[in-house]
Amino acid sequence: MTAATTAINGNINGEWYLALAAVLFAIGAFGLLIRRNVLVMFMCVELMLNAANLTFVTFANMLHDIGGQVLVFFVLVVAAAEVVVGLGIVVAIFRRRASATADDFHLMKG
Amino acid sequence: MVAIIHGLLLAAATPTGHASAVDWGTFGVAAAIVLSGAIGVVIARNPVHAALMLVMTLFGIAVLFVLQRDDFLAAVQVIVYAGAIVVLFLFVIMFLGVDREENIAVEPLRGQRPLAVALVALGVTGLLLLGEISKWTTGAPSVAGSTNSSTSNVAQLGTSVYTTYLFPFEITSALLVIAVVGAVALARRPPMADIDRVPDTEAELADATPSATDGAPAEPNGATETGTGTGDAHPATEDAHQPQDAHQEVTP
To answer: CA of B214: how far to CAs of A105, B236, B241, in Å?
Structure first.
């Protein structure tokens, strides 16, 4: 590792954080693939977003660059907007179908 | 988990090394919390339990942010994610009444889970291998600012947001307004139906409840055969299930 990468990540090498974020992202992707409840699938998307946030913060500390932390700030905002719109869609679908299972949403028409 | 145990062993073997035992201990505990919470989200049958497991993961991530001297984002993580987003999830779960347990032992698509395991394992292995055989960090730092200065994390972040990233920050407000308008437009009832149903909210309630309760007993049957679970779309299949259920109730 170069000198820039052994930075101030709490005195721990950044690779540990990146590996943890990769595993967290994998768990989130796995859950998104196997679960059927739309709300739980949303939560798995949140897991993946958090893994990306952890990666951004780690790289910000590895490269001594505040830009990564600013990007996490924007990811938080976009995640909030995404959850609001996504849950609005779930509510709108549920009103028509009385179901929150992804298998039931195989028709484009309401 | 293997990585964490390895990390703890490494810390125990070299106590006078670069990282202190406290740092490693904090990292190990936070990583264990994050991973167990994430696994809990995936395997929880009840969506409410999944949401609570998600809170656990978010707190673990916040601890990791603090460990990286990133205080502001840790606070925002707890306030926005655990305080607002998960509460929104719980609101929707309670509002829709979909806190029914999902039978996750049933596999709706044949061979989907082994395929998912294989794909995810392939992706993670590739990622970790890539990090092992090459450098994690490449390229040059941007002009956004250094994290090394003596000012606090909040001051650095604020300076960067309000100078270098001012335009994206303003666009963010537009995004939030669009999201709010979109959520309102999605969640409100169609105006035509509103005009029809203005006087009888009680009848509307009575109309809504049987369909919700009908879905509950049909769930185990509908989960095994994909596509037959929708009560409103297929009244014929709903009727076909009905005698079976009555028969099963009579026999014991």
So the answer is: 18, 14, 11
Instruction: Name the closest residue on chain B to residue A52, using Cα atoms.
Output: B61
Q: Within a 10 A sphere around the Cβ of A48, how many other Cβ atoms?
A: 19
Considering only CB atoms, which chain B residues are within 8 Å of A78?
175
Q: How far apart are CA B176 and CA A80, in angstroms?
A: 8
pLDDT tens string B54-87: 999 999 999 999 998 888 999 999 998 888 899 9
A19 close to B128: Cβ distance less than 8 angstroms: yes
Nearest to B128 among A13, A22, A94 (CB): A22
B153-188: buried (b, 16+ CB within 10 Å) or exposed (e) per residue? beebbeebbeebbeeebeebeebeeebeeebeebbe
* A17 contacts on B by Cβ (under 8 Å): 64, 68
Q: What is the pLDDT of residues B12-32, one digit of tens each?
A: 444 444 568 888 899 999 999
Give the integer Cα–Cα distance in Å for B104 and B91: 23
